[in-house]
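User: Structure please.
Assistant: Input sequence and predicted structure:
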Amino acid sequence: MKKMVAMVFFMFILSIPASSFALLGVIDIEAAVGGWYTSPSGKFMYNNTTGKSDLEDVFGFSEEAFPMGRVKVDVPVIPVIYVMATPMEFKGDAKANFTFDNQTFTTGAKTKLTLDHADLALYYGVPFLGLATLGTLHVNAGINIRVVQAKAEMKEANLSASESMDMTIPLPMLYLSADVSPVDAFAIEGEIRALSFGYGNVMSAIARLRLNAFGPLFVTAGYRYEDISLDKDDFEADIELSGPFAEVGFAF
């Protein structure tokens, strides 16, 4: 998680010189940071034959708040570059016995699941749509590469046994977004990232209300939903993550 948090701040460091070009009208840049209050549900397992265990009822995970950050750079001719990072780490105390990596753990064991997300989207807007709607509607389509850092650590409360797994999972996805802005001060935005492939199905949806506060500053509030189904290298998961978020940012 520390690496993913560092990535969020690194994105903003990169955006500082870009903002100088934005002021000259060469490029457009948008950046935001915020927090996501996330409710987990579903099941996962690693290298065992007893079946997947429930995130809440077995591993003892509950709602958590995580940071999130994004940077979007729009340069003429080339696709818009959109980077988003979301570190996620759930911790709990097991509410029932479970098996992880063919090791049995008992009630009260210390559990942790990390699902750090990093997204890189490249997209174009639908030609002439913004012009035809006098700038009130934009629709964008492209590709998205998501990298998930999945890590789990299980320890008996008395430290008599422990097991862990750590893997990086690349996920190619399609990207689609739209925004409606009836007035300059307010906009409704939506994003979808999704694809079905050999080792899973992933769908990410974001709905966002945006208020342009003053100057380049804006604030947003919205809802985010993640549906992750994976079966790769002995890691099997059917997980849903959802909850509200809020952001503050700037756009030039």
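The CA atoms of residues 199 and 231 lie 5 Å apart.
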